[in-house]
């Protein structure tokens, strides 16, 4: 019973990684119907450096957030932001990349030119993301300084996931939404390959903040710290030899890896 | 035995219950009371076991209690959506049942397709159709030159949810209503016809009032089911019970707690509705026996 | 037997075929004069009920014609007024079923005024006095506001008769009105039927009540396999049946 | 009229159908054929309208067709889960119904609580309980010294899904089975008892075989409903129909296309199952009339 | 009337109270000797069915005792073998219901062997020959493999009798076995009952068939309001009833 999580993984020669395959280009089904994405590649690389096989489990995001993972999976590699609330339930590794938060509007819109023009507009956002907390001026991330906007949106419309509000904005300018707020790489993917021939949305202004993203482990599972340490060590080596940067360029077409 | 009672001139008066019989009757009563007591004990044990399980799982009760008020605020939406949707469903199911029983090929095929399509596809998909596909139809019509349609077809979340649930349950209830109508004995219809009633008079005056009694129990079951299914409108961002529970659960990575809590809220709601339903049914049953 | 230039009911060569094959009525003719009381007897399945149901068009005859009080319907015809004519015949004919078929969701009084109010479009307060009169006539005044489920079978059948009479029909049809009743309750229903016959109603009754057939009927007809086997006055039929089969059948019925 | 048939000596032989009657019968046939034709036309028009709507929305059919094979691969899981779950549900519902009808307070209260709890809470929550809460119970038991329980209770997604669906549907079907048993006329039970059968013999030999016929139609409805509800196991990462459709839809921001496609797949499945159900029902109805 | 030291059925002071209040049987005594045929008459609701159902314990009497062929049950007693005793009495008594209650999911033959196979644990091939003998005896050999729904009411009732007889009962109870039948079908059932009586079966029958009561019964009892109003030979009862109420009741029944 006293075995550490790391020992259990090495003993089983497999690390079980949970990932929500709903988010391109972090984690998604590719044209062959296989799992692909930045998170997937990172996880595979981590397993390789641990010297074990990787097994992906693809539960819904709400099952991941249920906590109490027990031994269902050892680690979540799913672009998770270490917010203050989450730290009550989860252990986080060092960040493995950081994500810019970005507003976007419909392609056909000509009146909104700056972020300040969003005053009084209806903005779509996915529920319980840092983006929503940011709009509510209620976001806390350790070691990150958040600068809130000095204008106020009219109505914040919350959606279960990002894909919903992007599709809703694509219905037409102002049909249900005037703007949306999500991560820049999701938007880029939507514009590049979404909605058949590219979703009719365009980015607005600069990223408002950058959020760090980490692996997460279940705090309630005893003897997890050695695994966290081990993962941190592996992450450092991936920083050092440029693996992360390479993967970032491959999937995001830009370098989102911060300097340690 | 020959003289047991033949000398009794007024056998119409009920003889008094003899002592031996009293004893047996008392024995039956005692058994009934004991059974009821045991039943209560059994339930108490079961509830204790359930609570024990919840504690064993290691639920964070403090966390749950803290968020109860926030989540309960969503009950209004849940009830609003369910109530309006079931009203719509009642209307559609009566129309649908008449269509299914109709000899007019157009009405009949519309009703049949409605039932088949709606019952054959997941409710989730129907919610998306009302929320996302309908505006697209509006847009296409607008492109064809009919102005103002898109705005009309771009329903807000709550109306879209009510339509989705109402239309879906209407299809299921169509079959219930149809079965209810068909359960009325043919003799009733013949008696109505023999009086010279037209088909529609017979339907309105004789068949439907009787069918309603058959239909009410399954329909109230549907309503109870709908209370739970109404959580689907959370997909469209309506802040009803489930939406709030899931939101808080996600934030704190304690979805299990929140879901169990919201399940208990649903359960209490269903329980109350079931009591109401039983009241209605016994009330109706009383009417049946004619003591009004 | 009497030939009448203007009978109340005139059935001419009526055939009824079920399911394309089952030939239940095979060319039935029947004339009934106003005020006459007819009893139809016959073994089970011979088509007695089907004939009664053809008269008020609960079944559409496959061939032949039905005439009730001047309204005539030909089988297989597709005219525009046909539906109205059918309703017309039904208004003119009252029918009592073996299983009463009272409306269980209505009180006794509501059952009786249902026809006048819904079909004849009378006002409720117009319809009620006559309904009460009828209730009194069948001896059930005190059951006015009960629901049918609280009545005995005999009482239910009497209410059913009152319900038919409320439409002021020209003809009453009875289809084994007493065969679902306990022996002791039969009398009260036969009694009502007898009074109805005495008051001059035109009646066609299918019934195994020998008292009614023998003492009240003007004519008795025996049906078998969808045709008339024999007809005559009760005296002729019961005392001097012409047919061997009639005799067989009657001994069966009279034990 | 007096001599119409009295001279006919053999009225037992069915007379031939006269020409006028032939005409009427032919008229009825023609009407039926015309009605059937009109019905087919009406359906064709409706289907055309529906397809037109789908085209108007501007669906990306190429995209849909491209992904059909990938999504259809999930049908195996859908059927596997549904089939095993309905089997479990059948078993549980029979046990549940016997419990509900039992005079033993323990069995009765267990069955009653089972039905009330399961019917009163959303299926989604039940899925969570089997997937997340059960391992926790295992863990607590392990802490109490019973080794190996946690691994046992940490069910893989598919067994957890089968349990969740089976237990849930079992509760709903309990009421169906109970109603079916209670629909058997009291006379049947009395006849069995009068022969000297015990209660359990009467149940096995007389009541249950008759109840099954009443129960089969609603149970096959439940099975059809379960096909759709089985999509809930996608939550746990089982790659069945919906999982595949949703993931592909999200990835390409074309959820609507994928949902419509998966809806059509479900609809076809349900349609086929309904045909099978009708076959079974007519087959059983034939048995009823005793032509075996 | 005969006193017998060892009667087949002995009912002593049986009371039956429904719902704590409705006193349906008020101290009934009855002894029936082996081979005797008893007919019970009485108005609707007087408790005739309840008495029959008490004899084979389909209803538990509230007070008194029931003895059938040596097995005795006292009301309100809670002994261990009670359930076994009840089954024992039921095996010894056959019962025919007004509504036949054949098992619709079984063929005629399966209906008849159901009791011997399930209750008496006979092998099927042991039970079949006797079942076929019984079928022949009730005259339905050719219906062996039909389902009950394909039979007429009279045929169903005869199968029901055969089904009871397959258990080789010591007593047969009939509860208005012909009152759900068309008049022409009554004869065939009464005929079977009569042969059964002739062959020495002990019979208690509630029936309004006068022929059976008059010519076959050894004794006739009249029940009213849960007590015996009168009893005697058919001759005594039908020709010289002692009671005014008996006379009233009989005129009712005999029209
Ligand atoms: N709607 C129907 N469809 C098919 N066959 C029918 C229908 N109604 C009656 N029949 C058949 O027609 C025949 C005559 O039936 P009908 O009810 O007229 O007989 P009946 O003389 O009234 O007999 P009973 O004395 O039993 O009431 C029977 O064989 C019956 O099965
Ligand atoms: N299970 C029961 N619960 C309550 N009351 C009952 C029950 N069975 C019978 N009764 C009542 O007992 C009385 C006698 O019924 P029973 O059936 O014995 O009469 P019966 O003489 O057989 O009449 P019938 O000739 O109508 O069959 C009736 O008032 C009836 O309503
Ligand atoms: Mg008839
Ligand atoms: Mg009785």
Give the topology.
The complex is a heteropentamer, with one copy of chain A (260 residues), two copies of chain B (292 residues) and two copies of chain C (255 residues).
Chain A: H1 5-12, E1 14-18, E2 28-29, E3 35-36, H2 38-50, E4 53-57, H3 61-64, E5 75-80, H4 84-89, E6 90-106, E7 122-126, H5 130-135, E8 155-159, H6 162-170, E9 179-183, H7 184-193, E10 201-204, E11 210-218, H8 225-240, H9 243-252
Parallel strand pairs in A: 1-4, 1-5, 7-8, 7-9
Antiparallel strand pairs in A: 2-3, 5-11, 6-9, 6-10, 6-11
Chain B: H1 19-57, H2 61-72, H3 75-101, H4 105-120, H5 123-143, H6 149-153, H7 157-183, H8 186-194, H9 199-229, H10 241-252, H11 255-289
Chain C: E1 9-18, E2 22-32, E3 37-41, H1 48-55, E4 63-68, E5 71-74, H2 82-92, E6 93-96, H3 108-119, H4 124-137, H5 153-165, E7 171-175, H6 183-198, E8 202-206, H7 210-216, E9 219-224, E10 227-232, H8 234-239, H9 244-253
Parallel strand pairs in C: 3-8, 3-9, 6-7, 7-8
Antiparallel strand pairs in C: 1-2, 1-4, 4-5, 9-10
The structure holds adenosine-5'-triphosphate (2 copies) and magnesium ion (2 copies).
Residues 18-19, 22, 24, 42, 44-50 of chain E line the site of one adenosine-5'-triphosphate.
Sequence of secondary-structure elements of chain C: EEEHEEHEHHHEHEHEEHH
Counting DSSP E segments of at least 2 residues, the number of strands of chain C comes to 10
The largest pleated sheet of chain A is described as: 9 strands, mixed
**Class of secondary structure makeup of chain C:** alpha/beta
Helical proportion of chain A, percent range: 25-40%
How does this model look, in words?
- The complex is a heteropentamer, with 1 copy of chain A (260 residues), 2 copies of chain B (292 residues) and 2 copies of chain C (255 residues).
- Chain A is built from 9 helices and 11 strands.
- In chain A, 32% of the residues lie in helices and 25% in strands.
- Chain A is of the alpha/beta class.
- In chain A, strands 1, 4, 5, 6, 7, 8, 9, 10 and 11 form a 9-stranded mixed sheet that branches. A two-stranded antiparallel sheet of chain A has the order 2-3.
- Chain B has 292 residues and is mainly α.
- Chain B has 2 domains: 41 residues; 164 residues, MetI-like (MetI-like fold).
- Chain B is 80% helix and 0% strand.
- Chain B is built from 11 helices and no strands.
- The longest helix of chain B has 39 residues.
- Chain C is of the alpha/beta class and 255 residues long.
- Chain C contains 9 helices and 10 strands.
- In chain C, a hairpin with a 3-residue loop joins strand 1 and strand 2.
- In chain C, helix 3 packs parallel to helix 5, helix 4 crosses helix 5 and helix 5 packs parallel to helix 6.
- The radius of gyration of chain C is 18 Å and the shape is globular.
- The relative contact order of chain C is 0.17.
- The model of chain C has no long low-confidence stretch (mean pLDDT 91).
- The interface between A and D is medium-sized, with 31 and 35 residues.
- The complex binds adenosine-5'-triphosphate (2 copies) and magnesium ion (MG) (2 copies).
- One adenosine-5'-triphosphate binds next to strand 2 and helix 1 of chain C.
């Amino acid at each position: 019973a006293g075995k550490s999580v790391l020992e259990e993984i090495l003993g089983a020669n497999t690390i079980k990684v949970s990932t929500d395959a709903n988010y391109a280009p972090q984690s998604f089904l590719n044209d062959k119907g296989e799992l692909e994405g930045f998170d997937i590649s990172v996880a595979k690389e981590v397993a390789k450096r641990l010297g074990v096989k990787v097994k992906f489990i693809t539960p819904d995001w709400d099952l991941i957030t249920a906590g109490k993972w027990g031994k269902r999976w050892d680690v979540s590699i799913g672009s998770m932001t270490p917010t203050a609330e989450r730290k009550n339930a989860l252990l986080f590794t060092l960040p493995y990349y950081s994500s810019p938060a970005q507003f976007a509007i419909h392609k056909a819109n000509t009146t909104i030119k700056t972020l300040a023009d969003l005053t009084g507009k209806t903005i779509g956002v996915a529920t319980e993301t840092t983006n929503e907390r940011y709009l509510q001026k209620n976001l806390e991330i350790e070691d990150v300084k958040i600068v809130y906007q000095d204008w106020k949106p009219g109505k914040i419309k919350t959606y279960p996931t990002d894909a919903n509000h992007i599709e809703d904005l694509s219905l037409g300018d102002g049909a249900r939404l005037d703007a949306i707020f999500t991560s820049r790489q999701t938007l880029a993917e939507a514009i590049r390959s979404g909605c058949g021939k590219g979703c009719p949305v365009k980015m607005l202004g600069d990223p408002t903040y950058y959020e760090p993203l980490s692996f997460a482990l279940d705090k309630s599972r005893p003897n997890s710290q050695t695994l966290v340490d081990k993962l941190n060590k592996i992450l450092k080596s991936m920083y050092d030899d440029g693996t992360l940067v390479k993967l970032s360029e491959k999937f995001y077409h830009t370098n989102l890896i911060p300097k340690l | 035995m020959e003289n047991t009672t033949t000398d009794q001139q007024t056998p119409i008066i009920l003889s008094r219950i003899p002592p031996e019989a009293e004893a047996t009757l008392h024995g039956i009563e005692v058994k009934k009371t004991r059974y009821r007591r045991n039943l209560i004990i059994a339930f108490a044990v079961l509830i204790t076991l359930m609570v024990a399980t919840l504690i064993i799982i290691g639920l964070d009760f403090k966390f749950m209690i803290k968020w109860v008020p926030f989540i309960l605020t969503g009950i209004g939406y849940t009830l609003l959506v369910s109530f309006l949707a079931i009203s719509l469903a009642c209307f559609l199911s009566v129309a649908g049942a008449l269509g299914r029983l109709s000899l007019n090929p157009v009405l009949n095929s519309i009703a049949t397709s409605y039932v088949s399509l709606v019952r054959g596809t997941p409710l989730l998909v129907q919610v998306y159709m009302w929320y996302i596909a309908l505006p697209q139809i509006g847009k296409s019509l607008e492109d064809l030159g009919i102005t103002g349609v898109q705005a009309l077809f771009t329903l807000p979340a709550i109306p879209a949810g009510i339509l989705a649930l109402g239309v879906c349950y209407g299809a299921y209830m169509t079959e219930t209503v149809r079965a209810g109508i068909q359960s009325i004995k043919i003799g009733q219809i013949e008696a109505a016809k023999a009086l010279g009633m037209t088909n529609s008079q017979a339907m309105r005056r004789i068949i439907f009032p009787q069918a309603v009694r058959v239909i009410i129990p399954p329909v109230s079951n549907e309503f109870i089911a709908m209370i739970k299914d109404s959580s689907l409108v959370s997909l469209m961002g309506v802040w009803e019970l489930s939406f709030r529970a899931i939101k808080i659960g996600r934030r704190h990575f304690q979805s299990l707690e929140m879901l169990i809590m919201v399940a208990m809220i649903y359960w209490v709601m269903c329980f109350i509705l079931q009591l109401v339903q039983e009241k209605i049914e016994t009330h109706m049953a009383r009417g049946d026996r004619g003591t009004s | 037997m009497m030939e009448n230039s203007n009978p109340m009911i005139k059935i001419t060569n009526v055939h009824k075929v079920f399911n394309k094959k089952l030939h239940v009525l095979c060319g039935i003719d029947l004339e009934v004069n106003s005020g006459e009381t007819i009893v139809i007897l016959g073994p089970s399945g011979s088509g007695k009920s089907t004939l009664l149901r053809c008269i008020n068009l609960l079944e559409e005859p496959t061939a032949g014609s039905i005439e009730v009080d001047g309204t005539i319907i030909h089988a297989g015809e597709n005219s525009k007024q046909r539906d109205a004519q059918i309703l017309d015949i039904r208004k003119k004919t009252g029918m009592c079923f073996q299983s009463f078929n009272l409306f269980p969701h209505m009180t006794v009084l509501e059952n009786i005024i249902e026809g006048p109010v819904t079909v004849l479009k009378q006002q409720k307060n117009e319809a009620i006095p006559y309904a009460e009169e009828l209730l009194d006539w069948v001896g059930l005044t005190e059951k006015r506001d009960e629901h049918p489920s609280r009545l005995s079978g005999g009482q239910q059948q009497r209410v059913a008769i009152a319900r038919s009479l409320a439409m002021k029909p020209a003809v009453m049809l009875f289809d084994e009105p007493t065969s679902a009743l306990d022996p002791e309750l039969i009398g009260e229903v036969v009694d009502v039927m007898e009074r109805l016959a005495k008051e001059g109603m035109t009646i066609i009754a299918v019934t195994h009540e020998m008292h009614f057939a023998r003492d009240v009927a003007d004519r008795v007809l025996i049906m078998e396999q969808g045709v008339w086997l024999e007809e005559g006055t009760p005296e002729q039929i019961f005392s001097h049946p012409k047919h061997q089969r009639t005799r067989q059948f009657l001994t069966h019925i009279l034990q």
